[in-house]
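Pasting as-is:
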Amino acid sequence: MAAMTESSFDKSLTEGPVLGAVWKLAWPTMLQNIIAGLQGLIDHAMVGHYVGHTGNAAIGVSWQIFLVVIVFIASLFTGMGVLVARFAGAGDGGKVNRVVYQAFLTAIGLSVGVFAPLGYFLAPKLLRLVNAAPQVQAEALPYLRILFVFSLGSLLFFMVGGALRSAGDARTPLRLGLLLTVLNLAFNVVLIRGLGPIPALGTRGAAIGTVLAGGIVAALAINWLFSGRLVVRLSGTMRRLPDWSIIRSLFRFGLPTGIQGIAMNVGGVLLLRYVGSLANSAEAQAAYVVAYTQLFSLVTWTSIGLMAAASSLAGQNLGAGKPDRTRRTVATAARMGMALAAFFGLLFWFVPGRLLGIFGMEDPTVLALGGQLLRYLAVSGLFITAALAYNGGLQGAGDTKSPLYISLVSQLVLPLGICAFFQATRGLQPADIWLAIVAGHVTRCLLSYARFRQGHWQRIEVKLAEKGA
């Protein structure tokens, strides 16, 4: 395989206008996140219409469990992204390709050898662990088993997307994401409700559609990697055995991110339990789910795109020996995110009723609580988007431990501590939980900014043993 030359990488990411570099990587990821989120809403609507609320509950519970797998694998790909961005910035295509190939082998090994068999046999116990109702378990068990056994396609899709974005190509993952969404929707239309000789498969159909779409797109993406048409290029002549020095580096940089994601999911579940303890628990949970997990996604979808851009640019500019430009790119991503968050915040503040009405919210108590929460989130969005930008900068530079510690304090200890304090002293009120959310986001922003300003990330070394590909 011919060595990749330095000119193969996009030099505008390490040279020229900073704003343009951030936007070039951010907008495709933001758009892909929005489309994927809308796909999830459509899936739930279809299952709810053709199967009923039990099917919706089954999908929701299954994804809560499967999300742990995705978070763990995403941590592996975070480690891959740190290495790929640093070597791409240095113009070392050979090392970029070696890292991605080892991530490819690791993803296959984990999916086929670990998650598929364990997921199949442990699925019933996992469903009982989350206290899923018997009728929900009946719908969720085949759905969850299908996701676990055929997880390889989805995992490889995430791997290819992360590798290409870290190497400076954010448009190809967007194209693959669009194809994935179209295929998933098409399969679901046929498999959930049935068509012609194909029977209605309900929640099973939703799972089959998801894994079929993921498998097709993953096969196409891997074919592109081996064809030499992308910035990352693999070859059948590459070393087929695992390179444990690279795999250790993947987990060294990636595992803290996985632990961070799991901890934040646990924190979200515990926070939801506090919401369920309120006097008007049903109304409060409805307001929380719609306002925080759905409408606030308008902020988080765009913020995650900017975080990915900040991460890739931080690694590439460090690889190019430009720490000052690294600072400027991350700060630019934070300011851009805050501007977008301010726009959505104005909508949250001034037209909360109309936004909640989109989801069919008509109960006066739900509207009051949802409107109150949205006004808190209007402020919170400014801080979480900046926090995610600096979080991405730290991770991209190789400092994946600091975001973990910051998240544990700001997203777990602080908000849950505030809720516990008010519940023990005078009785918990909805506004106390909303305040805890804001306090967590503000703290995460301040700690992330302070840690990035310290500049410890400049001294982190990323090396690979000199071996032939």
